[in-house]
Structures are given as C-alpha cells and as structure tokens.
Amino acid sequence: MTTSTLERPATKAAPRAARPMRSERRAMPVYYLILIALAVFAIGPMIALLFNAFKNNAEIGANPLSPPTSLSLSNFTEAWTRGDFATTMLNSAILCLGSVVGTCFVAGLAAYALSHLNVRGGNGVVAYLFLSSALPVQLFVVPLFFMWTNLGLTDTRPGLILIYIATDAPFAALLLRSFLLKIPHDFTEAARLDGASDWQIAWRVVLPLAWPGLLTVALIVGLWSWNEFFWAITFIHDPELRPISTSFMAFQDQYSTDWGLTSAAAIFMLGPVVLLFLLLQRKFVAGLTSGGIK
C-alpha cells in the first residue's frame, strides 16, 4: 500500500514536466523563421551591394537586385583609382587610432571619477553628459569652425581627432561608468591602504577589470570615426588629408551618380570593418552583456 501510494505522484509528475519541452519544440520553427527573416533583412542589402559592384549603370537601372551577368573587376580598379583609396584609407586608419586612444583615455578617467570617487556634483556631471550626447552636433559647427581656424587646426588630422574625441567622449564615459559601477569598492580601498594614488588605482586596478567595456567603446568609436563624413568634409579641405568617407564624392557629379563605382567603393569601405568585427565579435558581444568583472 505504501509503495503504490508513493509511486503514483511520480508517474503523474512526468507528463507535467514534459509539457514545457513539447511547447518549446513546437515553437522552434517559429523561432527559426524569425531568425531567417532577420538574417535576410540584414544580409539582403549587402548581397545587393555586392551584385551592383560588378554591374554598370545600365544593368543596375534595369534590375538592381539581379545577379551580375559577368564578374568583371573594372569597377573595383576604377573606383580605387578615382577615389584615391590608398590615401583616404590610410588617413581614416590614423583618425580611428587617434580617436580610439584619446576617447578611451578621457572617457576612462571620467568614468573612474564618476563611479569610484566622491566627486562633488557628480549627478550633475552625469546629467550634462546625457544632455551633451543627445544634442545634435550641427549646433557647434559655426563657433567651432571659427575657433579651429584661429588655432590653426583646420586641415589637420589632430584637429579632426580632437573633434571626434569631444563628440564621442560623453557617450563613452556613460557606457564605461555602467561597467565600473559593478566593480566592488573593496579593490580600490585595498589599493589605497597599500599606498596607491588615484592615478595608479585607475590604470592598474579599475580599468584593467573593465576591459570588456573598453573594448566595446573602442569598437564603437572606431566605427563612428571610420564612417564619419560631416566633420571631415567641414574641417578638411586638403584632398591628401581627407578620410575614406569622402571618397564617394568622386563618383558623382551635378546631375548623375555612377552607382557601379559607388557600390565597389562601398565594398572597400565595409571590408575592413566587417573583417574587424568578425575577428572580435565574441569579445564585442561579451562587452555589451557582461559587467565589470566575471
């Protein structure tokens, strides 16, 4: 009697435990359909861009979504020459490197001060960073242009790098602050007891623990600097100093645009970015989802 009464609940509990598994299995096709739709939505324009890079304007006008009839590389060679990508790509690499290093330096120190130091008016500083990151950058063009002209920073790479750092630092500081807030203050207190200064604590204790956040900031700032066009066309007039985003102006005139050359140029611009993201995608996703420490 006792064994039968004890076994009955176990036999009835098994179907109940299996119900969630069955419902999940039934929902799996729906999940796959959603993922496929998102993949097509994301990859579809890239495929169309790759197709158009091998076509002329007549083929693109007839059907911009069809595969090319031939695999001629004439668009790529002409786009590379007319767009002067050898020069603009090097300039963009210098601008990206300077912007990433400068933004990580400024934003890292600001985030450390706002998260681990008792800064007077820290909440006001955070609100100011939110406000400055939300304002359109076009508001500062006229006074900044006159200031840069008087300082001799127009038509210079350092002048453009300073603008990139100033526009990217508020958002980067807020993002890093969210990582640094999750680092326990026990680490900083222990370092202070050992006689470490705030500078040493920031660079030897706190910021090394926030490497996922720093990597995320570096990738975002690098992408912004690589794709930026507005500041570059406003403050750089020397063709030898212009970044890669300005190369597309070589493929359009007053009345028409060569979309075949433009598509080929877009492949040149997207190639390094896609390759970098594929190499660092795991660390990038980990930086967006993880906290300050594991």
TrEMBL record:
Record-annotated ABC transmembrane type-1 domain positions: 89-280
Database matches in CDD domains: TM_PBP2
Residue intervals passing through the bilayer: 30-54, 92-114, 126-148, 160-180, 201-226, 259-280
GO cellular component terms, semicolon-separated: plasma membrane
Gene Ontology biological process: transmembrane transport
Subcellular location: Cell membrane
Pfam hit, one: BPD_transp_1
Keyword hit for ATP-binding: no
Low complexity composition bias: residue spans: 11-20
Gene3D superfamilies xrefs: MetI-like
UniProt keywords, alphabetically: Cell membrane, Membrane, Transmembrane, Transmembrane helix, Transport
Location of region: Disordered: 1-20
Chief location: membrane
Bilayer topology: Multi-pass membrane protein
Keyword Transcription regulation: no
PANTHER family: ABC TRANSPORTER PERMEASE PROTEIN MG189-RELATED-RELATED, SN-GLYCEROL-3-PHOSPHATE TRANSPORT SYSTEM PERMEASE PROTEIN UGPE
Protein family membership: Belongs to the binding-protein-dependent transport system permease family.
Name listed for the protein in its UniProt record: Sugar ABC transporter permease
Organism taxonomic ancestry: Bacteria, Bacillati, Actinomycetota, Actinomycetes, Micromonosporales
